[in-house]
Design a protein that fits this description.
Blueprint lengths: L1 H21 L2 H4 L8 H7 L5 E5 L11 H8 L5 E5 L2 H12 L8 E4 L7 H8 L9 E5 L5 H16 L9 E6 L8 E6 L1
Parallel strand pairs: 1-2, 3-4
Antiparallel strand pairs: 4-6, 5-6
Helix pairs in contact: 5-6
């Protein structure tokens, strides 16, 4: 729900900027040197949060996201797909047809991280190759995810990876939390 609201806020801000840049009033403003005008005016026309979850976890709240989105008036930005995430990647790859990837931000929330390598291999080509982000939850205090993260950092330090190309890795720790207290951002 927080990601969905942030997406809606971003869409509204870009729409406001687009109106400003297209108006006559924009000529009276100082040059807006803090944004890339063509990207605002011509480049960004849709937004969507796609949640892929098999809903098998006993404590999941994912099945309530649709009702939450409707209550917030944001259901037009949300698509909930009840499926296995690895299988869904194959469907997306077939639909993408080998393009540059349409996913700008991919949030990965696995339990123990034992499938991160397979997940990453399948989804990497689907992520926008011009700076798309993959955010992996709970990477610094989870043993399996830490091992995966060490391999990813080594690959990033090595430079132009044969499979992944160039990418950056940044991990963030939430020290006030005992569990699930970190995430890692990987930028393509």
């Amino acid at each position: 729900a927080f990601l969905l609201q942030a997406l809606a806020d971003n869409v509204a801000e870009l729409a406001s900027l687009r109106r400003l840049l297209r108006s006559r009033a924009a000529a009276d403003w100082p040059h807006l040197n803090w944004l890339v005008e063509p990207a605002v005016v011509d480049g960004y026309h849709w937004a969507r949060l796609v949640c892929v979850d098999n809903l098998a976890h006993a404590g999941t709240s994912a099945h309530r996201l649709g009702a939450c989105a409707r209550a917030l008036g944001l259901d037009d930005l949300l698509e909930v797909v009840e499926a296995d995430a690895l299988a869904h990647a194959d469907e997306l790859a077939e639909a993408d047809g080998g393009g540059d990837g349409e996913i700008d931000l991919l949030w990965v929330d696995f339990g123990d991280g034992d499938q991160l390598d397979a997940f990453f291999t399948k989804y990497w080509p689907l992520v926008n190759c011009r700076g798309g982000l993959i955010v992996v939850h709970s990477t610094l205090t989870n043993a399996a995810a830490r091992e995966w993260l060490a391999r990813m950092k080594a690959r990033a330090r090595a430079g132009d990876d044969a499979e992944l190309g160039l990418f950056d890795v940044l991990s963030l720790l939430e020290p006030h939390k005992m569990r699930q207290n970190s995430c890692t951002l990987i930028q393509r």
